[in-house]
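Final paragraph of the annual report: two paired records, presented back to back.
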Amino acid sequence: MSATAALAVAGCAPSTTDGGDAESDGSTGAAEGGGTARVGIIYSETGALAAYGEQYRQGLEAGLDYATDGTGEVDGTAIELEFRDDAGNPDTAVAAARDLIGQDYQILGGTVVSGIATAMAEQAAQNEVLYISGPAATDAITGVNEFTFRSGRQTYQDVATAGAMLDDSSGKVVVLAQDTAFGQGNLAAVEAVLGAEGAEVASVLVPEDATEFTGFARQVVDEQPDLIFVAWAGATAGNMWTSLSQQDVFDAAPVVTGLADSATFAAYGAAGEQISFLSHYFPGATDNEVNQALVDSVTEAGGTPDLFTVDGFVAGQMIAQAVAEGGDDVDAMIEALEGWEFEGPKGTTTIREGDHALVQDMFTAQLVQDGDAWVPEVIDTVPADEVAPPETAAE
């Protein structure tokens, strides 16, 4: 099942569908008006990450609205979004991508799933279409090929933000994680990022089916860490955080983990006030005109701004920029995005020319109790250049 939404973009759109006597400007690839730019958005409408997919979609629609000044039309030219459900499955996503490419879609976007993003990037290169990945955090997307961009942060930026809380770069970091692909991936990232900067990295890996965490908490304390990095997912999180509190882990060293979406805030319990969170985004993290536009637009549409709303919003800005400057020429769209610096909800944001990394500020935060609810507050803004990943040459 798919839904279609049409929005016009400031500038010009390609004449890939009917509506057009639009002609391409040879110098920029931009059309002079008319026609329709069709964009295929493949995201998790259903599946385990459907809540993240909805955040992304709400942000995307708000971002395109912002990029068009709310007019929905410029010179009779529209951007038309065709939404397809990947259901969290790479095969489903690839089938949708091939179908859209077969219909001459030249721009694809979306997905919160890293495995899907890498598969989509491969399709983009094989078929020479523009692909703008969504919240998927895998570092593998950066520099993978000239056709692939990202509208969110990547794992390196998460871990580097955690490293900003380490007083001594040669200190000891203990990773507490589940012994799963997710946990092992986070351990590998800490080793690659903080270990490369001189930190000693140790780990306490917990079986996924464990329900008692006292012994693991004591192992963390016994390692005498300077920083504790926690990577955890699932229903046992509440018990795990309680065990850390009971075993005085928070007195041993700063405890850092990623701030997830607002639905998870209550799960930390009293430990929430003792954790230092690395944060990609939450609505109160920044105070600027663009972020206010995001919050207002999503709220007025009946949604709730959250962790991955920003990735959709930025994708909307990027799609508008690509179409306005590149028209129906994929090479010109790529050129329009490479090196583009713009004001996003998180402030000044840059698409690095060489490998398409999205260089952006990150945040450290804490949770504070507000009545019966827990709300995040910014501790510090970590400047974009301090957490930018090393450049990777695009293939």
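The closing record of the year follows.
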Amino acid sequence: MDCMPTQDQIREALRAVIDPELRKDIVELEMVRSIDVHPTGVVDVMVSLTTPGCPIRSHFQTGVANAVKALDGVTGVNVSFDVLSDEEKGNLQRKLGRGGPLPSGALAQVKNVICVGSGKGGVGKSSVTANLAAALTAEGKQVGVLDADVWGYSQPRMLGLGAQRPKVNEQRRIVPPEAGDGIKVMSIGFFIEEDAAVVWRGPMLHKALQQFLEDVDWGALDYLLVDLPPGTGDVSMTLAQLLPDARFLLVTTPQPVAQKVARRSAEMATKVRLEIAGVVENMSGFVAPDGERYALFGDGGGQLLADELGVPLLGKVPLTMPLREQADAGTPLVAADPDDPAAQAVRDVAKGLIALTPVALPVMQSEPEPAGLNVIPPRPVGMSLPMA
């Protein structure tokens, strides 16, 4: 029989097991509670979870078993689980620099989070978000949209969902309504009277956004697009805190004023350590029905911003009449008229974004193995949103 691996060798092998939400390995996260090596070649590993009913327990069970089985001399692997104490959770929070609670699996199957921001209003950021969601879906991706523009929410209308009320599943998670070809959408607009004003201060916004991220059953997504409000205030800071691995997509118009304001959003993203994925120049000229193009807002601002930041210009989206009409009609132009110049430009943005965001998430197990713990439905966190 081959020599038995040491505990240090096993611990090193377990660095291949990544927490898909925290994006760090379980050794670095100090989730490996114990390792026991038996003379028969059987290895017992105990992993500490953040919550007893962790939805991704089976992911860890499979990852640990595969990593240890690959070592010479191992004849079998037993994986068991316990739960981090409150003190251990607090230590882990401090280690990760998180102000809020540790995740409990709600975003575990979301591969990429893209925050779409602009710095200023009126540059078409929300219409870019809605059409980008449709374009990514047309490329075969599973997509969700979080309307984080709490005061100026518009995604339900742009995606044709109106003010329907979301349902709650057996695990007491909010089920996001689906638009078009399965785009999952969450917005404060689903919980208040249609077109009502939202008059909230920062702490309420923080709790609502936290609930939209952690208490919504997003499921498996390739992209979660977050439609940010204008500016660099509470919402952007909260999302940077809750989503430390998100990427920032800047939307600007060609004119220098918009480009300079968008630069401030880039500075905010840099300060809170969010990676900037690229720039989209929206309203890049007006294309008339006869095909003639007019540079209403100047030219070149998007490229200047991208060059200044050292990131790619992912696309230049012209302003067309169907782009506005389809936004009001509730069907993204990309889906309604894919041959329109604006729709083609957004499709190019989607392809560029896909090229920048290769799959980094470990493959999740399709069939869960027998549970080592009784599965307890997660308790809702954050504030209670009005459901009536």
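The radius of gyration is 23 Å. This concludes the annual technical report; the extension proposal builds directly on these records.
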